[in-house]
Fold Bifunctional diguanylate cyclase/phosphodiesterase.
Amino acid sequence: HAKAQGRNRQQFYAQQIGDAVSQRLALERDLRAAVAAMDFELHYQPKLRVDGGLAGFEALLRWRRPGHGPVSPALFIPLAEQTGLIDAIGTWVVQQACAQMAAWRDAGLGEVPVAVNMSTSQLRDPGLVAWLAGVRQAHGIADGQLEMEVTESMMMDDPEQAILSLEALRQQGIHLAIDDFGTGYSSMGYLKRIPVHTLKLDRVFVAQVDSDARDADICAGMIALAHQLGLDVVAEGVETDAQRAALAARGCDVFQGYLFARPLPVAEATRYLLACAPTARSGP
Ligand code: C2E
Ligand code: MG
Ligand code: MG
Ligand code: MG
């Protein structure tokens, strides 16, 4: 009897593993098809300065998986990285964001800054800097208008190479931000050497900045450190006015989060731009 139970359990686990493998394979197959058709969208989430003016947008990738609905980039970006699909996706994201900045400029909406998220393999690509210069030139993107967000963990496997790449990007007029700041390793060691303009405070610190004294102190400390180094601070995931006020009181420069706006499809982002005061969209 016990033996039979053990066998059943083994079969049960084997089937579970089999299901997980086939689900992953199906996801990979659909992602491959999406890349072949470039069946993605960029949504644009506003970032606002303390005075309420628009600082720019962050471009966030959206994939509507046929038969499943929207899939979180937190789920499919890692798969894209493991399968090498990220290179084609990353190329498309930069081209798309630059084309959108050009379209907004040509529509008289100003030189709106847009930030895109970079992957490790993009940063490792020795052709990145020259390629980016070409894309920017083709679309007439101004200095400082295109921003790239990198995470601390992207520095990990080859910090020296990463710093050289970031230095070259900066010299080419690309703004650089450290994303999810405070959640990676060796924040302080690299901060000293990474040539970035902006530090994005991760949502985990923002969530209780208004209610937890330790989180409030951590935010205050990171903001002071960033300012000491000449960096701007963007708070991610601001959902309540109490969080906004607590961050503003500690000197935070820019806010991003559902309190202001969700990531918006192009048509809505354009309406958002049109509704901004002309001074708010005078460019970087
Ligand atoms: P991230 O770069 O840190 O982006 C911020 C995430 O927080 C986005 O999730 C955004 O929708 C979400 N968010 C914004 N405001 C709020 C808020 O007030 N509350 C909460 N709870 N969440 C908020 P999303 O769009 O699901 O993206 C997840 C991650 O996927 C991004 O984190 C980024 O690491 C990655 N990602 C997104 N688009 C791209 C891309 O084009 N390329 C690469 N390599 N990665 C991307
Ligand atoms: Mg980001
Ligand atoms: Mg982030
Ligand atoms: Mg994040």
